[in-house]
Amino acid sequence: MTTQTKYVFVTGGVTSSLGKGIIAASLAKLLQAQGYRTTIQKLDPYINVDPGTLNPYEHGECYVTDDGAETDLDLGHYERFLNVPTSQANNVTTGRIYQSVIEKERRGEFLGKTVQVIPHITDEIKERIQILGNSGDYDIVITEIGGTVGDIESLPYVEAVRQLKWDLGEHNAIVVHLTLIPYLSAAGELKTKPTQHSVKTLMESGVQADVLVCRTEHVLNDNIRIKIARFCNVHEDAVIQSIDASTIYDVPNLMLKEGLDTVVLNKLQLESNTPDLTSWNVFLQRHKNPKHTVHIGLIGKYVELQDSYKSILESFIHAGAANEVNVEVEPIHSEHIDKNAIEKLSHLHGVLVAPGFGERGIEGKINAVQYVREHKIPFLGICLGMQMAVIEFSRNVLGLKEANSTEMNPETSQPVIDLMEDQKTITRKGGTMRLGSWECELIDDSIVSKVYNSKSIKERHRHRYEYNNAYKQKIETAGMKSTGFNPGTGLVEIVEIPSHPWFVGVQYHPEYKSTVSNPHPLFVAFVKAALEYKKKNTSV
Ligand code: GLN
C-alpha cells in the first residue's frame, strides 16, 4: 500500500503501568483493520539481555515467540490483538544493545574510535528499530519505549527517537505520548499539570509529542482538551481520551471512537478509512454475553499476581468466548493444597496446573493432580503441570514412590522427568532452555488428534527437563498414554489418560498461541469439557 515504512513511537510519562502495551496493540489493531500491514516492537530499558532470567514476581510472565525469543509479556498482547507472530526483532533490551555494541568493539569494528552512548548505543537502537521496517513486510512499525520519560535508563532511547524523527522526515515518524490526567477528589477536578510536565520533559530531549493519549478515570470535557492542546503544543483532535475499560478488548473500539487511528494516519499522510472490526466485535459480543459459567482452578505459585500467568488467563477469555461460556478462573496457591485437596478443588469444573520452576509448591501440584485424576475432573497440565502429572501417576498408580524430576531432587532413584544429555553440560542460564516452536506428531484416536484435527502440530516450548523415555513403557502399560512426540528426538510432548474423560498434559505452552481470532483449540476443548462436566455433575 505504501512504499516508505512509517514509524510510530509510543512513549509514556508521569507514571508506569498506564497500559502503553494495550494502547500500542489497539492502535495497531485499528491500522491493521484498515488494511495496513502493521507490527509492534517493544524496547525495554533494563540491563537483562532478555527477560528470560527474570522472576515472574519482577516482571510478570516471560512470553516466548516462534523463533525462541524470551520476551516481554506485551508481545503476547501484540500477538493476541493482531494474530501475527512476533520474533526476536520485536523485543530489544538495553542489555542486548550493549552486548552487541561491546561485541562489535571486541571485533574491532569501530576502527579505533572511542565507543560512546552517542553515537554508538543510539545507532544500535536506531538500527534495531529499523530492522522490522527494512524487512519490507510492514507499512507501519509501532515501537513502544518501555519505562517513563525522564528516567535515566530511557534517555538513549528518547535520543534515538529524536534522531530518527529527523532522519526519516516529518510525515514518516511520529510520537504518541501516553500520560495520566489525575482526578483530585478534594478539588473535584482533573489536573493537567503532570501531563504538561511530562511533555516538557520530552521536549527537553528535543522530542515534540504529536499525539497525547490521556489515561483518565473521568471523561475529559472540551475545556480540559483545549487546555491540554494549548499547553502541550498539539492539536485538539490529537488529545485522545483513554478512559478505564472493563476489558482490554474494549480499547480498540474506544480508541476508534476517539479517532486515534485517523489522527495518526493523517500525521503520517496515509489514507484513512473505516477499519473493519467485524470479527473482533463478534468476539466481544460472545465474550460479554455468555450462556454458562464454569469454574476452573489455576494451580500455581505466582497466583497472587495477574501478570504471571497472563497468556493463560487471556487464553481462557478467548476459549470462553468461543464456547459462549464465562470462565471464572480461581487462582489457588500450590503451597496451600495438602493431601486434603477436596475442600479446595471439589467445586471446580476443571483444573489447570501451571508452568513453573523450582521445588516450591510442587507437592501441592501433585496432590491436585491426584485429586482430579481420581475424581475425573477435566485436567490440563502445562509444562511443569504435565511433568507433575507424570510424577503423580508414577507414584500413585505405578507405585514408584521415589518418582520425581531431577530438577526437584537431583538424587532421586526414579527420575521420571530428567535432563536430556545436551542440557547436562549447560552452565549459562540465559537463553539455553529448549525454546521456541517445535514440531509434534500426534497419535490417532487421542484427545489431541481430535482437538487439533491434524497429525502434526507446532507449539512453543520453554523448559529444560523432559519426560524420561526409560519409564515410557511402564507408564503406558499402567494407563497413561503418550499421544504426541517430537519426530526428531522421540521426546514425549503430550500425555493422556484414556480412562479419564479429559486428562491432558502438554510439555509445550499452548497459551502463547491463543489469539482473539484464533482461540487455542486445546483451551477451547478444555473449557468445553469443563462445561460438560458441570452439566453432568450438577443436579437440575
Ligand atoms: N521447570 C520445568 C523445566 O524446566 C518446567 C518449565 C516450565 O513449566 N515452563 O523443564
Short account of what is shown:
The chain contains 19 helices and 23 strands.
Account of the 3D structure:
By secondary structure, the protein is α/β, with parallel strands linked by helices. 37% of the residues lie in helices and 22% in strands. The protein is built from 19 helices and 23 strands. The strands form 5 sheets. A 9-stranded mixed sheet has the order 13-12-14-15-23-22-21-18-19, with helices on both faces. A 7-stranded parallel sheet has the order 5-2-6-1-7-10-11, sandwiched between helices. A 3-stranded mixed sheet has the order 16-17-20. The longest helix is centred in the first third of the chain and has 18 residues, at 117-134. It starts with 5 loop residues before the first strand and ends with a helix. The protein binds glutamine (GLN). Glutamine is lined by residues 355-357, 383-384, 407, 462-465.
From the spread of the alpha carbons, the general shape counts as: globular
Percent helix: 25-40%
Evaluate the radius of gyration: 25 Å
What small molecules does the structure contain?
A: glutamine
**Structural class designation:** alpha/beta
